[in-house]
Amino acid sequence: MPAVTPYERAMTFMRSAFDRLNLSETEKDLLGKPQNIINSTVRFKLDTGKEASFPAYRVQYNNARGPYKGGIRYHPEADIEEVKALAALMAIKCAVVKIPFGGAKGGIQVDPKKLSKGELERMSRTYVTVIADSIGPDIDVPAPDVNTTPQIMAWMRDEFEKTKKVYAPALITGKPLAYGGSLGRDKSTARGGFFLLQELAKIEAINLEDARVAVQGFGNAGSEIATFLHDAGATIVAVSDSQGGIYCKNGLDPIRIHKYKQKTGSVRGQYCKGSVCDIERMKLDETETISNEDLLTIDCDILIPAALDNVITSKNAKDIKAKIILELANGPIAPEADEMLAKRGVTVVPDVLANAGGVTVSYFEWVQGRSGNRWTADRVDHDLRRIMLQAFDDVRTEARRKGLSLREAAFNVAVGRIIETMRVRGWVG
Length: 429
Ligand code: GLU
Hints:
- Helices cover 47% and strands 16% of the residues.
- It has 2 domains: 6-14 and 35-170, Leucine Dehydrogenase, chain A, domain 1 (Rossmann fold), CATH 3.40.50.10860; 188-349, Rossmann fold (3-Layer(aba) Sandwich).
- The chain has helices spanning 6-20, 25-31, 80-96, 117-131, 150-164, 188-203, 220-231, 254-264, 267-273, 279-284, 292-297, 335-343, 351-354, 357-371, 377-402, 406-424; strands at residues 36-45, 51-62, 68-74, 103-108, 140-144, 212-216, 235-241, 244-247, 288-290, 302-305, 324-326, 347-349.
- It has 16 helices and 12 strands.
- By secondary structure, it is of the alpha/beta class.
- Glutamic acid is lined by residues 69-71, 93, 143, 145, 173-174, 330, 355, 358-359, 362.
- Glutamic acid binds at residues 69-71, 93, 143, 145, 173-174, 330, 355, 358-359, 362.
């Protein structure tokens, strides 16, 4: 049997919302597939002088509510199916938080960790020349995603401005502060997720100080949310990165792990060398190395998948012990697993809500780029909190009214908003 693609998984969630909302055939057809797909190749010179080429994509899923919006991913598994899935999720996500954007995603199917800095720059600039005619502040606004950084966004804006001979501060978001970035954008995905957890804790009368948390993925989003939760008094019992993870029943210190990871490039590396947790304490507390798979099923209260997609499947869903899962990654739970978790009463805060803080502050950055005004960090934080809590309230209200999971409710809310705009624009009858 051919493997189920990431796109099919995302569309399973989308199509069940179409059915619940009784969309017409025309509506299903229009919202059931991407509007444009750029399926191309980036060719650039390696340091050796040889030419390299990699598949490169930009999928523009839907722009009913505003310019296409979504990040660019550099990953060996970022093939067209994955980029299509992520583009669809972006359309839903922007509608959940009610920001005036559609959905898109870009990707280069490459392992960027094998490239030098010069090669990475040449590849990123070439990518922009490939998609330049299809992007722009009013058309499609890219951003960072897995393995892409503020520096890469700066190269891309610079290349676009040179190629098109324009000044375009609102072309792309997630830029460095020195070149049109916004305060708070770097921590925004985690910050948004943290606001939701604080609210959920209030609603479910949970004390975050008593919560034991496991975080899979120690990139931008994962390391920052571990830090916010640690600062709020929660116990971070496990973290991991692509190389493996560590478990410490009495709690790990995310800031020290972050510093160590910056030095050594791996979470497990810091454990082996023993310079994050104090080694004596690690022994006392029985800190262990664990695999990424083990991390998902360890004993904890809150599980935060913050790495790649499809990590919780029908195989391991029954072994998950957490009562709350916050999806900071895009698509970490497969549809069958989602059903199993819902049946078991696990609260899943879905990706399209949980990690929407990133694109929300991207929206603030875009607004600042267009107006020329600069926002304070306090204003960013305040407005992010307001938007995240409003979206959470909208989703919970829909869930309660119709007896749905938070994911089903989020898709209902988002699809309803997109279709409403498509109707008033006269795209559908
Ligand atoms: N890549 C992030 C996401 O998946 C941010 C997208 C953006 O800021 O446009 O939500």
